[in-house]
Amino acid sequence: MFGLLESGFQHFYWGNAVMIGIGAVLIYLAVVKKMEPLLLVPIGFGILLVNLPMGGIMDYELKVRAPEAGIVLEVEMQEGDKFKEGTVICQLDSGEVLAPVFGRIDHIEISPGEHVEAGEVVASVITMQQTDQSELPTEPIGLLSRIFKFGVMWQVLPPLMFLCLGALTDFGPMLANPKTLLLGAAAQFGVYFAFFMALLFGFSLPEAASIGIIGGAEGPTTIYVTSLLAPHIIGATAVACYSYMALVPIILPPVIKLLTSKKERAIYMKPQLRDVSQSEKILFPVVTTIIVILLVPFSAPLMGCFMVGNLFRESGVTERLSNTAQTALVDILTIFLTLSIGATMPAENFFQPKTLLILVLGVVAFASAAAAGVILAKIMNLFAKEKINPMIGAAGVSAVPMSARVVQVMGQKENPRNFLLMHAMGPNVAGAIGAAIAGGIFLGIIA
Protein backbone atom coordinates (compact mmCIF):
# COMPACT_ATOMS: atom_id res chain seq x y z
CA MET A 1 0.00 0.00 0.00
CA PHE A 2 1.17 3.52 -0.72
CA GLY A 3 2.36 5.34 2.37
CA LEU A 4 4.65 8.08 3.58
CA LEU A 5 7.69 5.83 3.23
CA GLU A 6 7.09 5.63 -0.53
CA SER A 7 6.52 9.38 -0.91
CA GLY A 8 8.87 12.34 -1.18
CA PHE A 9 8.17 13.57 2.36
CA GLN A 10 10.96 11.54 3.93
CA HIS A 11 13.47 13.27 1.63
CA PHE A 12 11.99 16.77 1.94
CA TYR A 13 14.14 19.19 3.97
CA TRP A 14 14.37 22.91 4.72
CA GLY A 15 16.43 23.62 1.60
CA ASN A 16 13.63 22.34 -0.62
CA ALA A 17 11.16 24.58 1.20
CA VAL A 18 13.37 27.64 0.71
CA MET A 19 13.82 26.91 -3.00
CA ILE A 20 10.08 26.41 -3.45
CA GLY A 21 9.68 29.81 -1.80
CA ILE A 22 12.16 31.33 -4.27
CA GLY A 23 10.28 29.76 -7.17
CA ALA A 24 7.02 31.14 -5.77
CA VAL A 25 8.57 34.63 -5.50
CA LEU A 26 9.60 34.51 -9.17
CA ILE A 27 6.09 33.45 -10.17
CA TYR A 28 4.65 36.24 -7.98
CA LEU A 29 6.90 38.85 -9.62
CA ALA A 30 5.80 37.60 -13.04
CA VAL A 31 2.07 37.35 -12.36
CA VAL A 32 1.46 40.24 -9.98
CA LYS A 33 4.26 42.68 -10.85
CA LYS A 34 4.28 41.76 -14.58
CA MET A 35 8.09 41.40 -14.54
CA GLU A 36 9.00 39.37 -17.64
CA PRO A 37 6.34 36.68 -17.12
CA LEU A 38 7.44 34.70 -20.19
CA LEU A 39 10.75 34.06 -18.43
CA LEU A 40 9.98 34.02 -14.73
CA VAL A 41 6.84 31.84 -14.75
CA PRO A 42 8.53 28.77 -16.31
CA ILE A 43 11.81 29.34 -14.45
CA GLY A 44 9.96 29.64 -11.14
CA PHE A 45 7.87 26.55 -11.83
CA GLY A 46 10.96 24.61 -12.90
CA ILE A 47 12.58 25.47 -9.54
CA LEU A 48 9.42 24.31 -7.78
CA LEU A 49 9.30 21.00 -9.69
CA VAL A 50 12.91 20.03 -9.07
CA ASN A 51 12.61 20.65 -5.32
CA LEU A 52 9.82 18.13 -4.87
CA PRO A 53 11.88 15.03 -3.94
CA MET A 54 11.41 11.73 -5.77
CA GLY A 55 9.57 13.44 -8.62
CA GLY A 56 12.35 12.39 -10.99
CA ILE A 57 11.76 15.33 -13.33
CA MET A 58 15.48 16.22 -13.55
CA ASP A 59 17.09 12.88 -12.67
CA TYR A 60 20.23 11.45 -14.22
CA GLU A 61 21.67 7.96 -13.77
CA LEU A 62 25.38 7.78 -12.99
CA LYS A 63 27.53 4.66 -12.69
CA VAL A 64 30.05 4.94 -9.85
CA ARG A 65 33.20 2.99 -10.65
CA ALA A 66 36.03 1.68 -8.50
CA PRO A 67 39.15 3.86 -8.91
CA GLU A 68 41.42 0.88 -8.18
CA ALA A 69 41.14 -2.90 -8.08
CA GLY A 70 40.57 -4.49 -4.68
CA ILE A 71 38.48 -6.65 -2.37
CA VAL A 72 35.23 -5.17 -1.02
CA LEU A 73 35.58 -4.91 2.76
CA GLU A 74 32.33 -3.11 3.58
CA VAL A 75 29.38 -1.51 1.77
CA GLU A 76 28.51 1.73 3.56
CA MET A 77 25.34 2.67 1.64
CA GLN A 78 22.06 0.88 0.98
CA GLU A 79 19.63 1.20 -1.90
CA GLY A 80 17.47 4.31 -1.46
CA ASP A 81 19.98 6.10 0.81
CA LYS A 82 20.59 9.80 0.12
CA PHE A 83 24.16 11.06 0.17
CA LYS A 84 26.27 14.17 -0.31
CA GLU A 85 29.21 14.57 -2.66
CA GLY A 86 32.25 12.89 -1.13
CA THR A 87 30.27 10.34 0.92
CA VAL A 88 31.90 6.90 1.23
CA ILE A 89 29.91 4.32 -0.76
CA CYS A 90 32.08 1.31 0.00
CA GLN A 91 35.44 0.32 1.46
CA LEU A 92 37.98 -1.62 -0.59
CA ASP A 93 41.23 -3.00 0.72
CA SER A 94 42.87 -0.58 -1.71
CA GLY A 95 40.93 2.46 -0.47
CA GLU A 96 37.53 4.14 -0.31
CA VAL A 97 35.06 4.62 -3.16
CA LEU A 98 33.58 8.12 -2.79
CA ALA A 99 30.41 9.53 -4.33
CA PRO A 100 31.44 12.06 -7.02
CA VAL A 101 28.03 13.80 -6.86
CA PHE A 102 25.09 14.25 -4.51
CA GLY A 103 22.04 12.03 -4.96
CA ARG A 104 20.62 8.71 -3.81
CA ILE A 105 21.60 5.08 -4.29
CA ASP A 106 19.58 3.30 -6.97
CA HIS A 107 21.34 -0.05 -6.97
CA ILE A 108 24.41 -1.54 -5.27
CA GLU A 109 26.34 -3.73 -7.70
CA ILE A 110 28.81 -5.35 -5.26
CA SER A 111 28.83 -7.16 -1.92
CA PRO A 112 31.47 -7.71 0.80
CA GLY A 113 34.19 -10.17 -0.14
CA GLU A 114 33.92 -9.62 -3.89
CA HIS A 115 36.92 -8.65 -5.98
CA VAL A 116 36.42 -5.63 -8.22
CA GLU A 117 38.60 -4.42 -11.05
CA ALA A 118 39.61 -0.80 -11.59
CA GLY A 119 36.78 0.92 -13.46
CA GLU A 120 34.20 -1.71 -12.54
CA VAL A 121 30.75 -0.39 -11.56
CA VAL A 122 30.14 -0.58 -7.81
CA ALA A 123 26.85 1.35 -7.65
CA SER A 124 24.22 3.00 -9.80
CA VAL A 125 23.12 6.36 -8.38
CA ILE A 126 20.43 8.90 -9.21
CA THR A 127 21.54 12.53 -9.19
CA MET A 128 20.33 15.96 -10.28
CA GLN A 129 23.86 17.40 -10.38
CA GLN A 130 25.28 18.63 -13.69
CA THR A 131 28.61 16.95 -14.45
CA ASP A 132 31.44 17.17 -16.94
CA GLN A 133 30.35 14.44 -19.36
CA SER A 134 33.91 13.63 -20.38
CA GLU A 135 34.74 12.69 -16.78
CA LEU A 136 31.39 11.65 -15.29
CA PRO A 137 28.98 10.62 -18.07
CA THR A 138 25.34 10.51 -17.01
CA GLU A 139 22.19 9.23 -18.65
CA PRO A 140 19.08 11.46 -18.41
CA ILE A 141 16.04 9.54 -17.15
CA GLY A 142 13.65 12.41 -16.32
CA LEU A 143 11.46 14.50 -18.62
CA LEU A 144 13.32 17.79 -18.16
CA SER A 145 16.75 16.18 -17.83
CA ARG A 146 16.28 14.76 -21.34
CA ILE A 147 15.24 18.15 -22.71
CA PHE A 148 18.15 19.77 -20.90
CA LYS A 149 20.80 17.33 -22.08
CA PHE A 150 19.77 17.01 -25.71
CA GLY A 151 18.55 20.59 -26.11
CA VAL A 152 20.84 22.67 -23.93
CA MET A 153 23.99 20.62 -23.34
CA TRP A 154 24.13 19.62 -27.00
CA GLN A 155 23.96 23.35 -27.86
CA VAL A 156 20.75 23.11 -29.91
CA LEU A 157 18.22 25.35 -28.15
CA PRO A 158 20.41 28.45 -27.47
CA PRO A 159 21.39 29.08 -31.14
CA LEU A 160 17.80 28.45 -32.26
CA MET A 161 16.64 30.97 -29.67
CA PHE A 162 19.12 33.43 -31.16
CA LEU A 163 17.52 32.86 -34.56
CA CYS A 164 14.18 33.88 -33.08
CA LEU A 165 15.74 36.91 -31.38
CA GLY A 166 17.19 37.95 -34.72
CA ALA A 167 13.73 37.78 -36.29
CA LEU A 168 12.40 39.96 -33.46
CA THR A 169 15.20 42.55 -33.65
CA ASP A 170 15.04 45.80 -35.58
CA PHE A 171 18.55 47.12 -36.22
CA GLY A 172 17.11 50.33 -37.69
CA PRO A 173 17.79 52.55 -34.64
CA MET A 174 21.40 51.38 -34.51
CA LEU A 175 21.95 51.84 -38.25
CA ALA A 176 20.34 55.29 -38.07
CA ASN A 177 22.82 56.32 -35.37
CA PRO A 178 25.94 54.11 -35.74
CA LYS A 179 27.77 55.68 -32.80
CA THR A 180 25.38 53.79 -30.52
CA LEU A 181 27.40 50.71 -31.51
CA LEU A 182 30.14 52.10 -29.27
CA LEU A 183 27.76 52.25 -26.32
CA GLY A 184 26.76 48.62 -26.85
CA ALA A 185 30.44 47.69 -27.06
CA ALA A 186 31.25 49.64 -23.89
CA ALA A 187 28.63 47.69 -21.96
CA GLN A 188 30.66 44.53 -22.60
CA PHE A 189 33.05 45.90 -19.98
CA GLY A 190 30.73 44.21 -17.48
CA VAL A 191 31.57 40.83 -19.01
CA TYR A 192 35.30 41.25 -18.57
CA PHE A 193 35.06 42.97 -15.19
CA ALA A 194 33.01 40.08 -13.78
CA PHE A 195 35.42 37.63 -15.46
CA PHE A 196 38.45 39.06 -13.64
CA MET A 197 36.50 39.37 -10.39
CA ALA A 198 35.61 35.68 -10.62
CA LEU A 199 39.27 34.80 -11.14
CA LEU A 200 40.16 36.83 -8.04
CA PHE A 201 37.62 34.84 -6.02
CA GLY A 202 39.27 31.58 -7.02
CA PHE A 203 37.10 30.34 -9.87
CA SER A 204 38.83 28.45 -12.67
CA LEU A 205 39.32 30.07 -16.08
CA PRO A 206 36.32 28.28 -17.71
CA GLU A 207 34.12 29.05 -14.70
CA ALA A 208 35.16 32.71 -14.68
CA ALA A 209 34.35 33.06 -18.39
CA SER A 210 30.93 31.49 -17.81
CA ILE A 211 30.27 33.90 -14.95
CA GLY A 212 31.56 36.91 -16.88
CA ILE A 213 29.26 36.28 -19.84
CA ILE A 214 26.29 36.89 -17.51
CA GLY A 215 27.16 40.56 -18.01
CA GLY A 216 26.21 40.21 -21.67
CA ALA A 217 22.61 39.99 -20.43
CA GLU A 218 21.68 37.42 -23.07
CA GLY A 219 20.30 34.17 -21.68
CA PRO A 220 21.06 32.01 -24.75
CA THR A 221 24.65 33.30 -24.89
CA THR A 222 25.19 32.55 -21.20
CA ILE A 223 23.75 29.06 -21.56
CA TYR A 224 25.72 28.32 -24.73
CA VAL A 225 29.07 29.43 -23.31
CA THR A 226 28.56 27.75 -19.93
CA SER A 227 27.42 24.46 -21.50
CA LEU A 228 30.74 24.28 -23.35
CA LEU A 229 33.09 25.62 -20.69
CA ALA A 230 31.65 24.87 -17.23
CA PRO A 231 28.49 22.73 -17.43
CA HIS A 232 28.54 22.04 -13.69
CA ILE A 233 27.59 25.69 -12.96
CA ILE A 234 25.11 26.17 -15.80
CA GLY A 235 22.12 26.25 -13.46
CA ALA A 236 23.53 29.12 -11.42
CA THR A 237 24.72 31.20 -14.39
CA ALA A 238 21.55 30.73 -16.45
CA VAL A 239 19.14 31.43 -13.60
CA ALA A 240 21.22 34.47 -12.58
CA CYS A 241 21.21 35.84 -16.13
CA TYR A 242 17.49 35.37 -16.78
CA SER A 243 16.50 36.59 -13.31
CA TYR A 244 18.61 39.73 -13.55
CA MET A 245 17.30 40.39 -17.06
CA ALA A 246 13.84 40.49 -15.51
CA LEU A 247 15.13 42.70 -12.70
CA VAL A 248 16.78 45.39 -14.84
CA PRO A 249 14.09 47.91 -13.73
CA ILE A 250 15.54 47.47 -10.24
CA ILE A 251 19.26 47.14 -11.13
CA LEU A 252 19.74 49.92 -13.69
CA PRO A 253 18.14 53.05 -12.09
CA PRO A 254 20.49 53.25 -9.06
CA VAL A 255 23.54 52.86 -11.34
CA ILE A 256 22.29 55.56 -13.71
CA LYS A 257 21.45 57.99 -10.90
CA LEU A 258 24.82 57.40 -9.24
CA LEU A 259 26.73 58.35 -12.39
CA THR A 260 24.60 61.18 -13.81
CA SER A 261 23.27 64.51 -12.63
CA LYS A 262 19.63 65.51 -12.92
CA LYS A 263 20.64 67.92 -15.69
CA GLU A 264 22.33 65.14 -17.67
CA ARG A 265 19.33 62.85 -17.30
CA ALA A 266 17.11 65.61 -18.67
CA ILE A 267 19.14 66.12 -21.88
CA TYR A 268 16.68 66.30 -24.75
CA MET A 269 17.16 64.14 -27.83
CA LYS A 270 15.08 64.60 -30.95
CA PRO A 271 12.72 61.65 -31.18
CA GLN A 272 13.01 61.23 -34.92
CA LEU A 273 15.90 59.22 -36.38
CA ARG A 274 16.89 59.16 -40.04
CA ASP A 275 15.12 56.65 -42.26
CA VAL A 276 17.11 53.48 -42.88
CA SER A 277 16.69 51.97 -46.34
CA GLN A 278 15.69 48.36 -46.87
CA SER A 279 18.98 47.78 -48.69
CA GLU A 280 20.90 48.78 -45.55
CA LYS A 281 18.77 46.48 -43.42
CA ILE A 282 19.35 43.55 -45.78
CA LEU A 283 23.08 44.14 -46.18
CA PHE A 284 23.72 44.56 -42.45
CA PRO A 285 23.14 40.93 -41.34
CA VAL A 286 25.05 39.57 -44.33
CA VAL A 287 28.08 41.84 -43.94
CA THR A 288 28.09 41.52 -40.14
CA THR A 289 28.01 37.72 -40.35
CA ILE A 290 30.99 37.63 -42.71
CA ILE A 291 33.12 40.08 -40.73
CA VAL A 292 32.34 38.83 -37.22
CA ILE A 293 32.70 35.11 -37.96
CA LEU A 294 35.97 35.67 -39.80
CA LEU A 295 37.27 37.61 -36.79
CA VAL A 296 35.72 35.38 -34.08
CA PRO A 297 35.00 31.94 -35.60
CA PHE A 298 33.63 30.47 -32.37
CA SER A 299 30.76 32.96 -32.48
CA ALA A 300 29.42 31.32 -35.67
CA PRO A 301 26.51 29.31 -34.14
CA LEU A 302 25.12 32.30 -32.24
CA MET A 303 25.95 35.07 -34.69
CA GLY A 304 24.96 33.02 -37.73
CA CYS A 305 21.55 32.16 -36.27
CA PHE A 306 21.02 35.72 -35.02
CA MET A 307 21.70 37.26 -38.40
CA VAL A 308 19.79 34.73 -40.50
CA GLY A 309 16.78 35.37 -38.26
CA ASN A 310 17.17 39.08 -38.90
CA LEU A 311 17.51 38.46 -42.64
CA PHE A 312 14.21 36.55 -42.54
CA ARG A 313 12.68 39.68 -41.03
CA GLU A 314 14.17 42.26 -43.37
CA SER A 315 14.38 40.50 -46.74
CA GLY A 316 10.68 40.95 -47.47
CA VAL A 317 10.43 37.54 -49.18
CA THR A 318 10.47 35.17 -46.19
CA GLU A 319 7.50 36.47 -44.25
CA ARG A 320 6.31 32.99 -43.27
CA LEU A 321 9.71 32.07 -41.84
CA SER A 322 9.93 35.38 -40.01
CA ASN A 323 6.43 35.04 -38.56
CA THR A 324 7.12 31.49 -37.39
CA ALA A 325 10.39 32.52 -35.72
CA GLN A 326 8.69 35.51 -34.04
CA THR A 327 5.70 33.55 -32.70
CA ALA A 328 5.35 29.77 -32.45
CA LEU A 329 9.03 28.82 -32.56
CA VAL A 330 10.21 31.36 -29.99
CA ASP A 331 7.36 30.38 -27.65
CA ILE A 332 8.19 26.66 -27.90
CA LEU A 333 11.89 27.28 -27.34
CA THR A 334 11.17 29.59 -24.40
CA ILE A 335 9.09 26.90 -22.69
CA PHE A 336 11.73 24.19 -23.13
CA LEU A 337 14.69 26.41 -22.30
CA THR A 338 13.38 28.26 -19.24
CA LEU A 339 11.54 25.31 -17.67
CA SER A 340 14.62 23.08 -17.92
CA ILE A 341 16.92 25.89 -16.71
CA GLY A 342 14.75 26.42 -13.63
CA ALA A 343 14.95 22.68 -13.00
CA THR A 344 18.75 22.85 -12.71
CA MET A 345 18.38 24.49 -9.30
CA PRO A 346 17.67 21.82 -6.67
CA ALA A 347 18.45 22.95 -3.14
CA GLU A 348 21.62 20.84 -3.08
CA ASN A 349 22.98 22.90 -5.98
CA PHE A 350 21.84 26.29 -4.74
CA PHE A 351 23.01 26.27 -1.14
CA GLN A 352 26.72 26.25 -1.86
CA PRO A 353 29.13 29.17 -1.41
CA LYS A 354 30.12 28.96 -5.08
CA THR A 355 26.52 29.29 -6.29
CA LEU A 356 25.74 32.24 -4.03
CA LEU A 357 28.96 33.96 -5.15
CA ILE A 358 27.95 33.47 -8.79
CA LEU A 359 24.65 35.23 -8.08
CA VAL A 360 26.51 38.16 -6.49
CA LEU A 361 28.97 38.39 -9.38
CA GLY A 362 26.01 38.35 -11.78
CA VAL A 363 24.67 41.55 -10.22
CA VAL A 364 28.16 43.05 -10.42
CA ALA A 365 28.34 42.13 -14.11
CA PHE A 366 25.01 43.80 -14.91
CA ALA A 367 25.76 46.92 -12.86
CA SER A 368 29.28 47.40 -14.26
CA ALA A 369 28.00 46.91 -17.82
CA ALA A 370 25.43 49.66 -17.32
CA ALA A 371 28.02 51.89 -15.66
CA ALA A 372 30.48 51.49 -18.55
CA GLY A 373 27.82 52.45 -21.09
CA VAL A 374 26.84 55.56 -19.13
CA ILE A 375 30.45 56.64 -18.63
CA LEU A 376 31.27 56.28 -22.34
CA ALA A 377 28.18 58.33 -23.23
CA LYS A 378 29.41 61.09 -20.91
CA ILE A 379 32.86 60.97 -22.51
CA MET A 380 31.31 61.17 -25.99
CA ASN A 381 29.42 64.28 -24.89
CA LEU A 382 32.72 66.04 -24.24
CA PHE A 383 33.42 65.99 -27.97
CA ALA A 384 29.95 65.91 -29.54
CA LYS A 385 28.19 69.00 -30.86
CA GLU A 386 24.79 67.41 -30.34
CA LYS A 387 24.66 65.96 -26.83
CA ILE A 388 23.29 62.50 -26.16
CA ASN A 389 21.45 61.59 -23.01
CA PRO A 390 23.98 59.46 -21.09
CA MET A 391 21.20 57.23 -19.80
CA ILE A 392 20.99 55.50 -23.18
CA GLY A 393 24.46 54.07 -22.50
CA ALA A 394 22.91 51.88 -19.80
CA ALA A 395 20.72 50.31 -22.49
CA GLY A 396 23.87 48.61 -23.77
CA VAL A 397 22.99 45.96 -21.18
CA SER A 398 21.49 43.66 -23.77
CA ALA A 399 18.29 42.63 -22.05
CA VAL A 400 16.29 43.45 -25.18
CA PRO A 401 14.09 45.45 -24.88
CA MET A 402 13.87 45.71 -21.08
CA SER A 403 16.93 47.96 -20.69
CA ALA A 404 15.66 50.38 -23.34
CA ARG A 405 12.27 50.53 -21.64
CA VAL A 406 13.90 51.42 -18.31
CA VAL A 407 15.77 54.30 -19.98
CA GLN A 408 12.57 55.48 -21.66
CA VAL A 409 10.66 55.55 -18.35
CA MET A 410 13.47 57.35 -16.52
CA GLY A 411 13.89 59.82 -19.37
CA GLN A 412 10.24 60.83 -19.31
CA LYS A 413 10.33 61.31 -15.55
CA GLU A 414 13.28 63.69 -15.85
CA ASN A 415 12.03 65.47 -18.99
CA PRO A 416 8.45 64.77 -20.14
CA ARG A 417 9.36 65.96 -23.66
CA ASN A 418 11.90 63.18 -24.07
CA PHE A 419 11.15 60.01 -25.99
CA LEU A 420 14.35 58.01 -25.65
CA LEU A 421 13.11 54.53 -26.56
CA MET A 422 14.32 54.48 -30.16
CA HIS A 423 17.64 56.07 -29.18
CA ALA A 424 18.09 53.47 -26.43
CA MET A 425 17.28 50.59 -28.79
CA GLY A 426 20.50 51.35 -30.70
CA PRO A 427 22.90 50.39 -27.91
CA ASN A 428 20.43 47.73 -26.77
CA VAL A 429 20.63 45.68 -29.97
CA ALA A 430 24.35 46.50 -30.31
CA GLY A 431 24.79 44.91 -26.89
CA ALA A 432 23.21 41.70 -28.20
CA ILE A 433 25.83 41.54 -30.95
CA GLY A 434 28.56 42.37 -28.44
CA ALA A 435 27.44 39.58 -26.10
CA ALA A 436 27.65 36.98 -28.88
CA ILE A 437 31.11 38.23 -29.86
CA ALA A 438 32.30 38.19 -26.23
CA GLY A 439 31.06 34.62 -25.89
CA GLY A 440 32.91 33.64 -29.06
CA ILE A 441 36.10 35.24 -27.77
CA PHE A 442 35.93 33.25 -24.52
CA LEU A 443 35.30 30.03 -26.43
CA GLY A 444 38.15 30.74 -28.83
CA ILE A 445 40.60 31.36 -25.99
CA ILE A 446 39.50 28.66 -23.54
CA ALA A 447 37.52 25.90 -25.27
Descriptive overview:
- This protein has 447 residues and is an alpha+beta fold.
- It has 3 domains: 4-56; 60-127, Beta Barrel (OB fold (Dihydrolipoamide Acetyltransferase, E2P)), CATH 2.40.50; 144-446, no CATH class.
- The protein is 57% helix and 9% strand.
- The protein has 20 helices and 9 strands.
- Strands 3-6-8-1-9 form a 5-stranded antiparallel beta sheet. Strands 5-4-2-7 form a 4-stranded antiparallel beta sheet, with no helix packed on it.
- Strand 4 and strand 5 (95-98) form a beta hairpin.
- The longest helix has 29 residues, at 353-381.
- The model has no long low-confidence stretch (mean pLDDT 93).
Describe the protein's topology:
Blueprint: H1 14-31, H2 37-50, E1 60-65, E2 70-75, E3 82-83, E4 88-92, E5 95-98, E6 103-108, E7 115-116, E8 121-127, E9 138-140, H3 143-153, H4 157-168, H5 172-176, H6 180-186, H7 189-200, H8 205-212, H9 219-229, H10 234-246, H11 248-259, H12 262-265, H13 278-295, H14 300-314, H15 319-326, H16 328-342, H17 347-350, H18 353-381, H19 402-414, H20 421-446
Antiparallel strand pairs: 1-8, 1-9, 2-4, 2-7, 3-6, 4-5, 6-8
Helix pairs in contact: 1-2, 2-16, 3-16, 4-9, 4-14, 4-15, 4-16, 6-18, 6-20, 7-8, 7-18, 8-9, 9-10, 9-20, 10-18, 11-18, 11-19, 13-14, 14-15, 15-16, 19-20
